Amino acid sequence: MRSPDHSNIRRCALAVTAALATLSTGCADGSREPTTSATGPDRQAQVAERGESIMPFDLDRTTHHFTKTDSGGVQTVVADDPRDINQATLIRHHLQQEVDRFRRGDFADPAAIHGDDMPGLAVLRSSAGKIEIEYETTVDGARITYASDAVEIVSALHAWFDAQVRDHGMHATHGAPSLTG
Predict the structure, then answer these.
(1) Predicted confidence (pLDDT) per residue in 132-151, tens digit
(2) Nearest one of 85, 92, 56, 73 to 156, comparing CA atoms
(3) Given this model, what pLDDT does residue 171 score?
(4) Cα torsion 69, 73, 75, 76: sign
(5) Structural contact between residues 79 and 88, judged by C-beta atoms closer than 8 angstroms
(6) What are the pLDDT digits (tens) for 100-123?
(7) Contact 135, 156 (CB under 8 A)
(8) Which pLDDT belongs to residue 47?
(9) 54 CB contacts (<8 Å, ≥6 apart)?
(10) Which segments carry the region annotation Disordered (predicted)?
(11) Distance between CA atoms of residues 116 and 160, nearest Å
(12) Sign (positive/negative) of CA torsion 111, 57, 63, 100?
């Protein structure tokens, strides 16, 4: 009887180990959540779905407008139909609550919708008391005005606005809402 060649056994064992490692890695990869484009339709769909659980108004019947200013910016949310009193009321109630939270540095709602790594969010969370945040009712919704003398905060607000416009897709736009007669 021939004695086994230890180097051949070792090579076989290494080959089997490598094959098992490759297979288990492939299986693990298959169980991960699918990744989506940072700005594509999949991401916008995910953001809209998350938004439904946080924003009481209907995204398909409202529009977010984000206007950058030298000192920060203006966020206006309006009902697409100015006669839709229900949507306007829901917008007002939600934005009033958000203003109270944002003044305390509580940006949990945007983080839950857009993710903790949302551009500008970390700076905004650490800027409680350093941003003037004012609420105003409009005929068809409400407006939040953000202002700061700190360049870093203004830049964070602008990045935050850009991220919201990207993530909300057709439900958001840069610039103030147009006035219709």
Answers:
(1) 999 999 999 999 999 999 99
(2) 73
(3) 78
(4) negative
(5) yes
(6) 999 999 999 998 887 889 999 999
(7) no
(8) 60
(9) 109, 112, 113
(10) 27-46
(11) 12
(12) negative
Alpha carbon separation from 145 to 61, 77, 80 (Å, rounded) = 22, 12, 20
**Cα–Cα distance, 71 to 150 (Å, whole number):** 8
Percent of the chain whose pLDDT exceeds 90:
52
Whose tokens are 């958001």? That residue is 172
How far apart are alpha carbons 69 and 181 in whole angstroms? 26
- Give this prediction's pTM: 0.73
Query: What SS3 string covers the chain?
Result: CCCCCHHHHHHHHHHHHHHHHHHHHHHHHHHCCCCCCCCCHHHHHHHHHHHHCCCCCCHHHEEEEEEEECCEEEEEEEECCCCCHHHHHHHHHHHHHHHHHHHCCCCHHHHHHHCCCCCCHHHHHCCCCCCEEEEEEECCEEEEEEECCCHHHHHHHHHHHHHHHHHHHHHEEECCCCCCC
Please enumerate in sequence order all residues whose Cβ is within 8 A of that of 21, keeping only pairs 6 or more positions apart, or say none.
none
Structural domain boundaries in the chain: 1-32, 41-174
Give the number of C-alpha atoms closer than 13 A to the C-alpha of residue 137, restricted to the C-beta side.
8
- Residues 44-87 pLDDT 10s: 667 656 666 678 889 899 999 999 999 999 999 999 999 999 99
The pLDDT of residue 45 is 67
